[in-house]
Amino acid sequence: MTYFASLAAPLEAAITSLKKHGVEEDKLRFGGETPVPAKIYVPSFADSKFQAEQALGDWAENSLAAALNEALPNHRAVAYGFSSKIIAGEDGFKEHYVKGIADTCLFGKRADLLIVDRDCILPDDISNLETVDLSGDVAASMGAIEVRSSRMESKVHAEYVISQLAAGKKVSTPELNFTVKVEDLIKVYRWIEVHDKPQLYAQVFLDAVYAIGIREILEYIGTASKLKIDNPQRSRKYTIMVPISTGHRVGDVVEYPNFEVVDRLTKNGRHDIYARPVGGKLTVNGDFICDLLQA
After folding, report:
1. How far apart are CA 137 and CA 19, in angstroms?
2. How far apart are CA 204 and CA 289, in angstroms?
3. Which residue from 212, 206, 200 is spatially nearest to 282, judged by alpha carbons?
4. Mind listing the GO molecular function terms for this protein (predicted)?
5. Cβ(224)–Cβ(15) under 8 Å?
6. What is the largest CA-CA distance in the chain?
7. What is the pLDDT of residues 86-118, one digit of tens each?
8. Residue 54 belongs to what H/E stretch?
9. Does 126 have pLDDT greater than 80?
């Protein structure tokens, strides 16, 4: 059975569960191309909060890639996600943004990292190469990893929860989660449909790394007795909270990063000031990650 075929039953159960939890049927159209929106809203600027989140995400992705390249003797991680260092409001951003949406509608969401043979000729960064031109390289790959970052320390949070519960207090978040947007899950599913390759979510906390496969996410959604779904009324973009214990701890932050202040002057005279992580080091269990991709 192919990886894509193995998703059929878990997906059916997940869709049934999501409908029971109030997710509208028109939000659950998995498979096939997605029509490109007639009108695409392009952000006109990126505030300091967004840039700080982007910087943390870049650090998580680069640090995980470095850890994987150190841990995997026969494979390496290359930057694959359709992304750009151009910030909203800068020249060229609109064209790149619209192109990325069109590409995702057609081929699905490209994950941040692609795991390829160590001796393949691909450069370390293929994020700006066309999806159609990379189809053969993806076919030869082990799979892909979507990297998520977090400002949390998982062990400190777990200890905090234990102490609060011991004191008879309620805790709003008893366990940290993989946050999975339904619309992103549809885009990832489309990518798997096109390429028939597995994809993992890797959550990089500031002390540890957890990973979970897309099939495991679907299985959790379809079988969880208490499924927590965040539904902002304004955006109606459903986000599923998947406890990190559903996944696997695959690595640790062995060197905490430093943070440097960035002061960026925009074209209209505004200063965007935020903290950017630099340095630090992750270690990962490469064999375990390979097993997850091949499961």
Report:
1. 37
2. 14
3. 206
4. endonuclease activity
5. no
6. 58
7. 777 777 788 888 888 999 999 999 999 999 999
8. helix 48-71
9. yes
DSSP 3-state percent helix, strand, coil across the chain (nearest 5): 40, 25, 35
Q: How confident is the model at residue 84 (pLDDT cuts 50, 70, 90)?
A: low
Burial class (CB in 10 A: 0-12, 13-18, 19+), 74: exposed
Q: Which of 62, 67, 53, 56 is nearest to 81 (CA)?
A: 62
Contact present, 218 and 163 (Cβ < 8 Å): no
Whole-angstrom distance, CA of residue 289 vs CA of residue 10: 21
Structure confidence by residue, pLDDT tens digits, 171-198: 999 999 999 999 999 999 999 999 999 9
Confidence band for 251, pLDDT divided at 50, 70 and 90: very high
Structure tokens at 147: 């990297």
For residue range 25-51, what is the model confidence (pLDDT) as tens digits? 999 999 999 988 888 888 877 788 989
Distances (CA, A) of 113 to 68, 78, 260: 10, 6, 25
Sheet of strand 281-284, all strands in order from the earlier edge strand to the far edge: 75-79, 113-117, 143-149, 199-204, 208-213, 248-255, 281-284
Encoding tokens for residue 109?
A: 């969401």
Residue 229 has pLDDT above 70, yes or no: yes
Residue labelled with tokens 């109030």: 22
* Strand ranges for the chain from DSSP E: 75-79, 113-117, 143-149, 177-181, 199-204, 208-213, 228-230, 239-243, 248-255, 258-265, 271-278, 281-284
d(Cα 25, Cα 40) in Å, to the nearest integer?
A: 23
What strand order describes the sheet that includes 228-230? 177-181, 239-243, 228-230
